[in-house]
TrEMBL record:
Annotated NCBIfam families: GlnA
Binding site for ATP: 194, 209-211, 326
Stated name of the protein: Glutamine synthetase
Note on cofactor: Binds 2 Mg(2+) ions per subunit.
Organism phylogeny: Bacteria, Bacillati, Bacillota, Bacilli, Bacillales
GO molecular function: ATP binding; glutamine synthetase activity; metal ion binding
The protein's Enzyme Commission number: 6.3.1.2
Length: 454
């Protein structure tokens, strides 16, 4: 472990002492207090290290009315409470005699209670709900991204950085050098990197990091997206987590692997079952299938998300599960025992990971609490089935557009309960507005197909 990485198994006093030691040894002068807005976009307030004691005490105030989905202007004062375990020195900031660090924070009300509009707090509520049932949640997300060249002013173009394919090495994989620097930065910030490779589409990449508890995994995913974009920019490139930036090739997903643990054992594992899944695992799967249409607007939050969720590009758009079939929405990876997990394949990396992990875990808990029964697994290739065959097997579709997904979200009591009234209301309003903006805009496709013809 790097000397600048926080040990999470220590108590608060020990962690504080370790942070102060790192600040001294690394000559940290500035600390960035980071948090996310409703959409999961990272925000930051920078303070000098002289403010450290006040920062740790949660005394840093900010204007919540200026953050998307947060407070009205008449209740705008909010405070940032750093999560001490997220402290990290920024490896690209280190210079001789100077460096910068960051904390990820939760937003708090002036009275010290958690602010309900902070999506990090939404996930905490779901974690607490699972804990009340004796479960801890383990999450391993897999975030894909594209690298595009930039123009002379640093703006992204539509020109990809390479024309490599799946697992392609150099010289075709020009992004290899970028991934190496991303890997080094992530490792210095405490990540355990498991794999790095070129993805299926030209210019598409993936770097896998080790699973963590639900909140820790959302923090890692948020940090990962920030680091990837920051390092890419240093190479004159633009990294995007947009789900479908190029027509005709694969889009980017964020497969989410999730397990529940109880008393230190994987609650999804049963060695006597035919495919080694427990009763809870089957109920978890049933909960996902029962609720996925109502939370698709969270896991797939953009107009563009539904241009990825179409047949032919490896993205699942049919609601089914399987122990091996990658055309199914839900897959059970081959590793079992402590590694037994359920993989949901529809989420994309534009989503807010705090909300995404919250709705997935809550849907699974819903299945367990209601003792739902999972439908039969589908082991045929769903992508190449006829519509009649899918109807015969009872295979439903995910929403086909953001408009439909938001309608499902708006009608869902499950979503309202999981997100809380504040986030639910703000999120529905924001996404309805986004769809309306898209619906009323005139797009280049319309110009190309209609302007000269009519």
């Amino acid at each position: 472990m790097s000397e600048a990485v926080i040990s999470k198994d220590k108590n608060e006093t020990e962690i504080l002492a370790q942070i102060k030691e790192i600040i001294s040894s690394k000559s940290v002068e500035l600390i960035h207090l980071q948090f996310v807005d409703l959409e999961g976009i990272l925000k930051s307030i920078t303070v000098t290290v002289d403010q450290f004691d006040d920062v740790v005490a949660g005394k840093q105030m900010f204007d919540g009315s200026s953050v998307k989905g947060f407070s009205p202007i008449n209740k705008s004062d909010l405070y940032l409470q750093p999560d001490l375990t997220t402290f990290a020195v920024l490896p690209w900031s280190v210079e001789e005699g100077y460096s910068e660090a960051r904390f990820l924070c939760s937003a708090m009300n002036p009275d010290g209670t958690p602010f309900e509009g902070d999506t990090r707090n939404v996930l905490k509520k779901t974690v607490d709900r699972a804990a009340d049932k004796g479960y801890t949640i383990s999450v391993g997300p897999e975030l894909e991204f594209f690298l595009f060249k930039t123009d002379s002013e640093g703006n992204p173009t539509q020109q990809l950085d390479d024309n490599g394919g799946y697992f392609e090495p150099s010289p075709k994989d020009f992004g290899e050098r970028v991934r190496l620097e991303i890997y080094r930065a992530l490792k210095a910030m405490g990540f355990t990197i498991e794999a790095s490779h070129h993805e299926v589409a030209e210019g598409q990449h993936e770097i896998n990091f080790k699973y963590a508890d639900a909140l820790g995994a959302a923090d890692l995913a948020t940090t990962y997206k920030w680091v990837v974009k920051t390092i890419a920019q240093k190479f004159g490139l633009h990294a995007t987590f947009m789900p479908k930036p190029v027509f005709g090739i694969n889009g980017s997903g964020m497969h989410v692997n999730m397990s529940f643990f109880k008393n230190g054992e994987n609650a999804f594992y049963n060695e006597t079952d035919e495919i080694q899944l427990s009763k809870e695992a089957y109920q978890f799967i049933a909960g996902l299938i029962d609720n996925v249409k109502s939370f698709a607007a969270v896991t797939n939050p953009l107009v563009n998300s539904y241009k990825r969720l179409v047949p032919g590009y490896e993205a699942p758009c049919y609601i089914a599960w399987s122990a091996s079939n990658r055309s199914a929405l839900i897959r059970i990876p081959a590793k079992k025992g402590m590694a037994t997990r359920v993989e949901l394949r529809c989420p994309d990396p534009s989503s807010n990971p705090y909300l995404t992990f919250a709705v997935i875990a809550a849907a699974g808990l819903d299945g367990i609490e209601k003792e739902l029964t999972a439908p039969a697994s589908i082991n045929e290739d769903i992508f190449h089935m006829t519509e009649e065959r899918r109807e015969e097997l009872g295979i439903d579709n995910l929403p086909g557009s953001l408009e439909v997904a938001v309608q499902e979200l708006q009608a869902s009591e499950f979503a309202r309960k999981t997100l809380g009234e504040h986030v639910y209301g703000e999120y529905v309003s924001a996404k309805k507005s986004e769809w309306d903006s898209y619906r009323t805009a005139v797009h280049s496709w319309e110009i190309e197909n209609y302007q000269s013809k009519f």
